[in-house]
Amino acid sequence: MNEQTISQLNENTQALIDFVISIDNEKALITPPSGKWSIIQICDHLMSVDFGIFSLMSLEGAQADQDRESKKAVINEVGINRDKKYTSPPPLEPKGKTDTLEKFKTKFPSLRSKMCAAIADKDISRVCDKFSHFVLGEFTFEEWIYFSIQHTNRHKLQMEEVLSELSHQG
Fold it and tell me: Whose CA is closest to 76, among 156, 161, 151?
């Protein structure tokens, strides 16, 4: 039923894992001079956010209003605009549960696989009415998955920034 969404999630997962594989394990632990999160902290944050989204998939949700506008465009804009910074809610800040790239390279695809299984037969057009995004409000389940993809893309850009900063430090 939701093959396209599952396909997009799988492609996004593979793209991130392919990128992370290229990162030196020791470099991933270094906090850059700017004070941004380290690569491993970003990975830990991605795990927390996606686990939260996976948890939402167990909810039934509500029928969307017929005139409801999709939030995909705004999700996309937030995802690609690195000039706008957001502060992660405290429960989603890095906690150190994912503390090596090896763990991330195993745990992230496993979590994403569980997300795919959860949405396979779900009516993802329904609105997740029990939990809202802290900035963008209520999403349909499909929009939550789209958010997961764009959020991952945003943080991949952040990882690239961190790696660039680390390579230029002297």
Answer: 151
Domain boundaries, the chain: 3-29+37-81+96-168
Give the Cα separation of 139 and 25 in Å (integer). 36
Helix, strand, or coil (residue 128): coil
Phi, psi (degrees; rounded to nearest 5) at 61: 80, 175
Q: Under CATH, which number does the domain 3-29+37-81+96-168 receive?
A: 1.20.120
Q: Rounded to two decimals, what is the model's pTM?
A: 0.95
- Helix-helix angle 3-21:141-168, to 10 degrees: 10
**pLDDT in 10s for each residue of the chain, 170 residues:** 599 999 999 999 999 999 999 999 999 999 999 999 999 999 999 999 999 999 999 999 999 999 999 999 999 988 888 888 888 999 999 999 999 999 999 999 999 999 999 999 899 999 999 999 988 999 999 999 999 999 999 999 999 999 999 998 75
Sequence-ordered list of residues with C-beta below 8 angstroms from that of 10, at least 6 positions apart, any chain = 112, 116
